[in-house]
Amino acid sequence: MSGLRVDLRQKSFGGVPVLGEVTFALAPGEIAALLGPSGCGKTTLLAMIAGLDSDYTGRIEPPGGPVAMVFQTPRLLPWRRLVDNIAIAAKVPVAEARALLEAVGLGASADMFPEKTSLGMQRRAALARALAIKPALVLMDEPLVSLDTANAELMRDLIRSQLARSGATALITTHDRVEALTLADRVLELDGVPAELVRDRTSPLGRDERQSPGSVAALHQRWFGSKDPGPDSKLTGGLK
Amino acid sequence: MDKALPASAWTLASLAGFTLFWAVIAAALASPVLPGPEAVFQAFLHEVRIGNYWYSMGVTLLRVIAAFTIAMAIGSAIGIALGRSAWAERAFGGWLSLFLNLPALVTIILCYVWFGLTEVAAITAVAVNKIPNVAVTMREGARMLSRDLGEMAGVYRLSWGESMRHVILPQLAPYFAVSARNGLALVWKIVLVVELLGRSNGVGFQLHTNFQLFDVAAILAYAIGFILIVQFIELGILGPWEAYTKRWRR
User: Fold this and answer.
1) pLDDT tens figures, A51-107
2) What is the Cα–Cα distance from B207 to A200, expressed in whole angstroms?
3) Which of A135, B46, B117, B167 is 20 to 30 Å from A202 by CA-CA measure?
4) Residues above pLDDT 90, as percent of chain A
5) Residues from chain B contacting residue A114 (CB–CB below 8 Å)
């Protein structure tokens, strides 16, 4: 059984191809990062995998179980409290939703409306919502983007721990190499116009090793030829 | 200190000022064409004593509630359908423009001609007048529905009922509130015309009767009473409900 199988031939918008050949398969429980520059089509690919866009040529086979998505904008229902957002999406009792929020450090904010919380808190609530449906596959679209360093590191640690606990297969889009190396068992790189899968590399680092900044820095040097993670990286501190 | 207090105090002071202005003008004219506040109050007491006042108010209010409820339900359904379906908009959008520009008086006359001088005709006429306004507002609301939240509902497999309750209707609530407030203001005025033209009870009928008797004090007593009732519904029911629907905003 596959965690996810993607065999995309082409995806176009208005006759203009934005994605070319992208072929990969994820094993159940595998965590993969989809790395590529902003605007290269990562979110589009995620939407296709989530079933939100079926206008493409090729074949995408999600796993048999539920598919959850952590959107780049958290997309919580602004008129429902955080705890109700979880309960509604996962169809679980409020008490269970409250426990899920506690697991991402939001126990004290469970009764707040999303607009009265920070972006970091909304992202964590969105992560809790995704995992609440006990997904076979979790799709995360730039989960650390627009967060400050402290919140990015908190979110990264939560993603690691929560995914490890759930055992779900995960595909995480990012334009940040350090983020990819820190989170993923495998790094898939998109590039070109239209974007295609140009590299598919399995990390030699185990999940514990990836928590060591030194190991991540060394792998960054080996794969990308530089220890410098680039100015955009939220996790620059992790390499120093 | 409550910040709302000075505002309401200002409103009361302003209304008191208007009453004083009215009393001064009425005293200066000393004509039955413009009776003062005291004469209007006496007319009110007289209408209450002979049993006309609250009965007429009650009958008119029931017509307002019936026509308002029908107009809100049908107008909302039409508006949402037009806002959500390009096909429906193409097919029926023109109908909406047609009915929007149909004078209220024409609708009332046609309903009385087609259905007779009956209760059904009266309420239908009022509802038909209001439905296009509700539909237009709700159509705008339906067009503004968040695609992002729609996708979220799709990913998390929310059922049609769950989507309506948790995703769609809360987004439409502000538009519904605007429709309701505007609708109430419009409906009660049209109900009076409908009653004046073809009913034998209600405030509109009383206005018609008192017009024939040239009893301006009684006309003003009914008008002021109805304004107070509609203001109570607006401020006491619709206002707090609208505030409740917005409680989640930052």
Assistant:
1) 999 999 999 999 988 999 999 999 999 999 999 999 999 999 999 999 999 988 899
2) 83
3) A135
4) 67
5) 248
d(CA A203, CA A180): 10
> How does residue A240 score in pLDDT terms, banded at 50, 70 and 90?
very low
Whole-Å CA distances, B99 to A5, A29, B61, B125, B127: 54, 59, 25, 12, 12
Kindly report the pTM of this predicted structure: 0.79
Structure tokens, B188 = 């009660």
Q: How far is CA B79 from CA B93, B134, B142, in A?
A: 10, 7, 7
Nearest-CA residue of chain A relative to B249?
A115
CB atoms within 10 A of CB B31: 9
| Residues of A with Cβ-Cβ distance to B149 under 8 angstroms | 75, 77
* Residue A216: closest CA among A28, A226, B153: A226
Interval A111-128: pLDDT, tens: 999 999 999 999 999 999
Chain A closest CA to B93's CA: distance in Å? 28
CB B75 within 8 A of CB B133: yes
Specify the length of chain A in residues: 240
Q: Which residues of A touch B151 (CB under 8 A)?
A: 47, 52, 71, 75
Write the residue in B155, B156, B248 that is nearest to A78 by C-beta: B248
Query: Residue A77 and residue B149: Cβ atoms within 8 Å?
Result: yes
Residues of B in contact with A74 (CB under 8 A): none
Report how far residue A45's alpha carbon sits from residue A68's, in angstroms, rounded to the nearest whole number.
14
**Chains A and B: how many Cβ contacts under 8 Å?**
50
Mean pLDDT of A125-143: 93
pLDDT for A237: 46
pLDDT at B250 over 70: no
User: In A54-81, which positions are buried (b, 16+ CB within 10 angstroms) versus exposed (e)?
Assistant: eebeeebebbeebbbbbbbebbbbbbbb
Question: Residue A67 and residue B249: Cβ atoms within 8 Å?
Answer: no
